[in-house]
Amino acid sequence: MDFVLTLIAGPEGGLSEAEARRIGRIAGELANSESGVPDWLAPGIACDISLQGRELDNLRATLRQALAEAPVDAVLQPAANRRKMLLLADMDSTIVTSETLDELADCAGIKDRIAAITDRAMRGEIDFQGALRERVSMLKGLSADALDRTLAGIELTPGARALVRTMRANGAYTALVSGGFRFFTSRIADRCGFHEDRANRLIVENGVLTGEVSEPILDKDSKLASLREIAKQRTLPLSSTMATGDGANDLPMIEAAGLGVAFRAKPAVEAAAPAAIRHGDLTALLYIQGYRQSDFIVD
Q1: Is 112 a catalytic site residue?
Q2: Three-class SS state of 245
Q3: 154-206, pLDDT tens digit by residue?
Q4: Which of 73, 90, 219, 250 is catalytic?
Q5: Pick the catalytic residue: 73, 92, 246, 281?
Q6: Among 63, 130, 140, 156, whose Cα sits 20 to 30 Å from the Cα of 214?
């Protein structure tokens, strides 16, 4: 089978021709195949290397282990059908740099307490639904004005707008699917250009948070169902989809997508995902689809 290995450095660059060729030789030896010369998608940042092989999952795992200390992301996939026509993305710590519920808790002076629960939930150590209800209950009585204050401090992850806008410009459908809250996802979706957003809803009465969240809660099963539902609506096979996120509640959709990407993810998520990005920004998800830097839609 024909494969393509995409190497991606951080956005500041630093990936040399010599290093790319060295990694290509390692991949070729592991695959018992000749590797092609680097095809640069962005000078010093990203390149493609062609090779052939079998048993993709084993090759991915072995290559990831061999390159564990290298300051470069390496994504191996079949050369065919790289361009995806549906993107599902998590919001917190993926499309935005922070956990919005933790930042909201900062307005109540309990960020550390809530962030500790968030971290355990994202690592898959505790049930997501129970953890969400517990954290929201701790915000009972908080003024709804805190939502706007929190939103004002939320930053997009570098490359988020380029990822969404470039895929849209090339015919893909984009959805922001979060275990967070629609107050934030609706606004972040607008900032990035997503076609739609799905998330949970905080209950607000008389200008304050009640400490409750609307049921049913959007969780890992809901994210997976969203992937399948939207793909069906768009008459797309799952092989034409991409899903990305960082937490345990993202893993089912990451594993089911045509290409699932763990983005700066928790260790268990990174280990299970077909692709992992540690060093690149969100434009890495464009490079692994074969987009060149000159193709990006940027502001």
Answers
A1: no
A2: strand
A3: 999 999 999 999 999 999 999 999 999 999 999 999 999 999 999 999 999 99
A4: 90
A5: 92
A6: 156
